[in-house]
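User: Could you check the structure of this?
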Amino acid sequence: MFNTIVLALDGSEGSRRAIPVAAELARQNGGRIVIAHVEQDVAGKGGAPIPITEDEIQAEVREQAKRLAADGIETSVEMRNVILGGPAHPIAEIAEEANADLIVAGTRGHSPVAGLLLGSVTQRLLHIARSPVLVVPPSDRS
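Assistant: Sure, the predicted structure tokens are below.
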């Protein structure tokens, strides 16, 4: 059913929660995973300190791909860079190029209203992706 799964990873705890879900679906269906990571230019984002560097996130993404491959799941990594518009469109493009049957993405746990106001990447994917999107919610749902 799910031969190709795109797993959107951004280094956040929300995206990490999506990893075991994508892995289990790939195992059940003998599918492969394409990890999608989009680097965003953060210039002009208010000057808030970033706790982890993009290099560290990319290293984490590559390490996760190695772990999935070591577990017997065919895994590849697609990385893109975006300056304007956020990562949803590049993730959707990666899914389309990979002929994905499913996109798996986590959420950061914003309330539905906050998610709308903040322009959640996952919410945007739900609107623009041609593939179905499986959203992994936060584990501490209230």
